[in-house]
């Protein structure tokens, strides 16, 4: 009893100081990581189904996931200094026996083998030979790549705008002023088109040569054509 | 032999601009202006045709369409306007898309001296010598069957046989003299001017106006509007997969335009180019 009380009081006496814990940074990272894992899990589940989802819903999901990934990386970058200088250590009252796995994960400083593999494959994919290049050259290469990506993005956006505003179509009006290119609303029917004639009548003309009676009638009224049967 | 799946619709003159904008955004391609001249030949009434073939099967008489594309510079163009989709809107108001004299001149340009003795109809001659002239386009000769029957059809399906005439053989030969020997006489001719959109799945959308050319004067058949034709050509009628795909493509366009322009299956009798002078047998 005594010893128990003693050890309790010993543990209670030791009031750990939590001031140094970067809780804001950790919380932000945790939240974004949780979102990301959730979305990734959903995509994986959808893809493993027998029937693939509609392409547009899949695309929007991937878009969401990508933006979550972006926000995670930017958060990590934002708190990089804090997180780099943070060291984890267990408190004496940590239940080491029951939570050994968690403890070793938290205390591990080396990457797990699979993470090492990911990094290696990413380096290989980036086509960077670290043994030859010095860090500055790598930075330069990365910057070049970023520039190309930026250019491609800008070009894409420009072309897309051109396409959606119908500039290709408007190009045919070269020489026309801006006003002329615009559809003149006053003379244009912006509602549902009316049917000026029956398409069957026109087809009857093209296949049999029968001129629609209305037009024939108009002609004979003008007196310009004499209908002879 | 080509299998053509099609849907038709109409719009009025005032809806042209908006419809063109709609279609160019929908298809992602700009409109392409085109002009065609078509001569339709019918059987010579002074001949008596046997209605059975060598196997004693009943045969149908059919009109023959002979058509070619018309160079766009022959269209009536105001000096400052460009050859574009805008042009169709302008000439759409006219009674004739091309000056009769210009047509005559154009027709005469491709006429050969030896053909002049054959009379007026020999204007549509083609032969090897004409091919050397850059503006001389070959004539295409086509015959079409009546569209497939069936009430539940969602698109019109028609078989068309077409060949391009590159040359005619023999002395004093011409397409018109050949057709005359075959027992055909010219019936009517018309000019089509329109714009085309090339869309996905080999679908083509034509927005066109038609002018009848008769007795040296022309008459607009599509007064006050435009004829819209959406079609897909399938090379073999046995290619069920392609036909189904084409039908789906047409139906999805129909669905997309639903409530704006209604594309419909035309009456198959309206597209029947056979000569029904048999009266009782149709």
From TrEMBL, chain A:
Compartments where located: Nucleus
Function: Component of the Mediator complex, a coactivator involved in the regulated transcription of nearly all RNA polymerase II-dependent genes. Mediator functions as a bridge to convey information from gene-specific regulatory proteins to the basal RNA polymerase II transcription machinery. Mediator is recruited to promoters by direct interactions with regulatory proteins and serves as a scaffold for the assembly of a functional preinitiation complex with RNA polymerase II and the general transcription factors.
Pfam families: Med8
Keyword entries, A-Z: Activator, Nucleus, Transcription, Transcription regulation
Keyword Nucleus part of the UniProt annotation: yes
GO biological process, alphabetically ordered: regulation of transcription by RNA polymerase II
The protein's assembly and partners: Component of the Mediator complex.
Classification via Gene3D superfamilies: 1.20.58.1710, 6.10.250.2610
Domain of life (superkingdom): Eukaryota
GO cellular component annotations of the record: core mediator complex; mediator complex
UniProt-recorded Gene Ontology molecular function terms: RNA polymerase II cis-regulatory region sequence-specific DNA binding; transcription coregulator activity
Gene name per UniProt: MED8
Phylogenetic classification of the source organism: Eukaryota, Fungi, Dikarya, Ascomycota, Saccharomycotina
Chief place where the protein resides: nucleus
Protein name, as recorded: Mediator of RNA polymerase II transcription subunit 8
Family: Belongs to the Mediator complex subunit 8 family.
Keyword Transcription regulation in annotation: yes
TrEMBL record, chain B:
Domain of life: Eukaryota
Primary site of residence: nucleus
Record flagged with keyword Transcription regulation: yes
Gene Ontology biological process terms in this record: regulation of transcription by RNA polymerase II; termination of RNA polymerase II transcription
Compartmental location: Nucleus
InterPro entries for the chain: Mediator_Med18
GO cellular component: core mediator complex; mediator complex
GO molecular function terms listed in the Swiss-Prot or TrEMBL record: transcription coregulator activity
Keywords carried by this UniProt record: Activator, Nucleus, Transcription, Transcription regulation
Residue ranges of the TM segments: none
The keyword Nucleus appears for this protein: yes
UniProt-listed Pfam families: Med18
Function: Component of the Mediator complex, a coactivator involved in the regulated transcription of nearly all RNA polymerase II-dependent genes. Mediator functions as a bridge to convey information from gene-specific regulatory proteins to the basal RNA polymerase II transcription machinery. Mediator is recruited to promoters by direct interactions with regulatory proteins and serves as a scaffold for the assembly of a functional preinitiation complex with RNA polymerase II and the general transcription factors.
Similarity comment text for this entry: Belongs to the Mediator complex subunit 18 family.
Assembly, per entry: Component of the Mediator complex.
Protein name: Mediator of RNA polymerase II transcription subunit 18
């Amino acid at each position: 009893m005594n010893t128990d009380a003693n050890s309790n009081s010993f543990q209670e006496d030791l009031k750990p100081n939590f001031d140094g814990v970067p809780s804001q940074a950790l919380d932000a990272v945790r939240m974004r990581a949780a979102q990301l894992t959730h979305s990734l899990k959903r995509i994986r589940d959808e893809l493993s189904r027998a029937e693939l989802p509609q392409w547009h819903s899949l695309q929007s999901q991937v878009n969401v996931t990508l933006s979550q990934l972006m926000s995670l990386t930017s958060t990590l970058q934002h708190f990089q200094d804090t997180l780099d200088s943070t060291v984890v250590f267990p408190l004496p009252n940590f239940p080491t026996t029951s939570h050994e796995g968690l403890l070793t994960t938290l205390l591990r400083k080396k990457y797990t083998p699979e993470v090492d593999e990911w990094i290696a494959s990413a380096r290989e994919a980036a086509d960077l030979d670290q043994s030859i290049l010095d860090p500055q050259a790598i930075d330069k290469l990365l910057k070049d790549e970023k520039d190309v990506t930026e250019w491609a993005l800008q070009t894409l956006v420009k072309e897309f705008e051109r396409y959606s505003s119908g500039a290709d179509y408007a190009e045919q009006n070269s020489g026309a002023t801006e006003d002329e290119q615009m559809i003149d609303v006053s003379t244009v029917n912006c509602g549902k088109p009316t049917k000026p004639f029956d398409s069957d009548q026109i087809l009857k003309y093209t296949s049999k040569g029968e001129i629609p009676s209305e037009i024939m009638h108009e002609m004979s009224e003008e007196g310009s054509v004499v209908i002879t049967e | 032999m080509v299998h053509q799946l099609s849907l038709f619709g109409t719009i009025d003159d005032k809806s042209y601009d908006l419809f063109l904008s709609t279609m160019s955004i929908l298809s992602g391609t700009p409109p392409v202006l085109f002009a065609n001249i078509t001569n339709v030949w019918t059987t010579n009434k002074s001949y008596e045709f046997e209605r059975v073939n060598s196997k004693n099967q009943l045969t149908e008489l059919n009109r023959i369409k002979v058509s070619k594309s018309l160079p766009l510079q022959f269209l009536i163009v105001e000096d400052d306007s460009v050859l574009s989709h805008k042009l169709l809107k302008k000439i759409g108001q006219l009674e004739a898309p091309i000056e009769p004299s210009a047509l005559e001149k154009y027709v005469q340009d491709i006429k050969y001296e030896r053909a002049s003795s054959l009379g007026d109809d020999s204007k549509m001659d083609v032969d090897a010598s004409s091919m050397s002239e850059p503006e001389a386009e070959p004539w295409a000769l086509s015959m079409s069957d009546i569209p497939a029957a069936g009430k539940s059809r969602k698109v019109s399906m028609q078989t068309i046989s077409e060949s391009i005439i590159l040359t005619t053989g023999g002395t004093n030969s011409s397409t018109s003299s050949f057709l005359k020997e075959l027992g055909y006489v010219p019936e009517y001719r018309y000019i089509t001017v329109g714009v085309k959109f090339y869309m996905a799945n080999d679908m083509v959308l034509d927005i066109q106006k038609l002018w009848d050319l008769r007795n040296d004067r022309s008459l607009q058949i599509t007064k006050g509007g435009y004829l819209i034709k959406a079609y897909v050509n399938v090379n073999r009628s046995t290619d069920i997969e392609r036909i189904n795909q084409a039908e789906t493509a047409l139906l999805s366009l129909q669905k997309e335009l639903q409530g704006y322009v209604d594309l419909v299956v035309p009456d198959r009798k309206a597209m029947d180019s056979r000569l029904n002078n048999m009266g009782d047998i149709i």
